[in-house]
Write a structure and sequence with these properties.
Blueprint (H helix, E strand, L loop, with lengths): L9 E9 L5 E10 L8 H11 L8 E3 L15 E3 L7 E5 L2 H9 L6 E6 H4 L2 H13 L3 E4 L8 H4 L2 E7 L19 E6 L2 H9 L4 E4 L20 H11 L4 H8 L3 H11 L13 H22 L7 H18 L6 H13 L2 H5 L3 H4 L7 H8 L6 H11 L3 H10 L4 H19 L1
Parallel strand pairs: 2-5, 5-6, 6-7, 7-8, 8-9, 9-10
Antiparallel strand pairs: 1-2, 1-10, 3-4
Amino acid sequence: MQDHPVLARVALGYCPMLDRQRNVVATRLTIFPERPDAAPDVPALLEALQEVWPPSDEAQPLKLTLRPLDPAAVSQRATAPAGGTATPVALNIAGEAMLSALLAASPPKHLMIEVPAFMATDPVHARALRDLHEAGNVLLIKGRPLTPLTPEVLAWFAHSIVEVADERRGIVPPAPGVRQVTTVQAGARTTAEIDLAFQRGAIAVLGWPFDDPEPRATGRATVPPDVKVVLELVQGVEREEPVSKLEAILKRDPTLAFRLMRYLNSAAFGLTVEINSFGHALMLLGYQRLKRWLALLLASSSKGVGARHLLYGAVRRGLLMEELGRTQGDAEMRGEMFICGVFSLLDRLLQQPFSELLQNVPVPERVQQALRGDGGPYAPYLELLRAIENEAVFDIREQSEALMLGPGDVNRAVLSALHAARQLDG
């Protein structure tokens, strides 16, 4: 990321948008100004965001499968600009002055924009919203308006974002003959809430299932069979075994070998030559540097449908932990922080508690401390990650200050991590 001074005047949080198949189809980026009435340099902010989500992505559609609430909704548009083969972004601006400045700045069409219902009904903003809609921008109305929207205003919005706490469907049926905008459910914190949102007819869900119960002890002495090969590879690299032995392990799972080569040759990895074999990768990287990508491979071994957005989170946690450590420690520490971030969701990905997993997965002691909840130097960084994922601005500021990190440093790390993750997703 370039040095954008405007990043020192905001706080950033993010969460995934899931479709009915539980694929991550977009990222919601929440932007808090330093003060509720502040409007930082919006053009400069858009310039920073376009380093992560460039305008060239505009041509690719985001396709969501509709389940209309009534027949009149069938004609509702179900596509939005997307980010290449990776996920596009919806901007949630948590400040009226800043959002007003954004609407007036003619933002690029590939950035979806959330608009609170009270602003949608305010005549002051009507012209800007109409102009953006006519220009092809995708607008999402957030919350329920106090008074019904006119058909003209309703037509400006592709979808309606409704918080779980404000959900009324199933209790108050929609008025007959009234066109309904398809709903994106926000604030889901459990798998049950995500499932219920889709049962109610939501087109997508915003949120993380991090309030699900922690996995129970399985009594298994080993990890599940579908991750055995990659775990053997991780353990072999930890012991620095010969290349021939490691390649023999990898050959037992061709799909695994393909995924590893894809990660290593991604733009996020930053190599100038193409890696064509495990031995080639080991020669270029060495055992220590290769560990971080095997950690990512282990996290991606879960094949469950519900694991897709957890892997999305694990990848970004690892990359963000590494970025936060870039100004705090040496290369070894940054590598450990990457592994710590990725493995912080490994118990949920593999449905096995850390008390069992850590008996089989070789990780440094400082990483083990954080994963077990025993403190250590990486625990405060995990707390900051959780605050960013929860889009909790006061917690973000508190955790950043505890780590003596300025908002500009944290936000540059967030955008750098999201940019690298998009390259891996693609």
